[in-house]
Amino acid sequence: MTASVQGQPPLTVSIHTVPKHGRGESENEDSVTANEREGRFAISDGASTAARPEVWSRLLTEAYSTESLDPFNQAVQRELRRRWQQEVNRPDLPWFAQAKLAQGSAATFIGLQVFESGFDVAAIGDSCLLHLRDAEILLSAPLSNAEEFSRFPVLVRTLDETTPTQEIWAGGGQHQAGDVFLLATDAIAKYLLQNRVYLPLFCDAPITDDWFCDFVIEHRRLGLANDDTTICVVRT
Question: What predicted TM-score, i.e. pTM, was given to this entire model?
Answer without folding.
Answer: 0.92
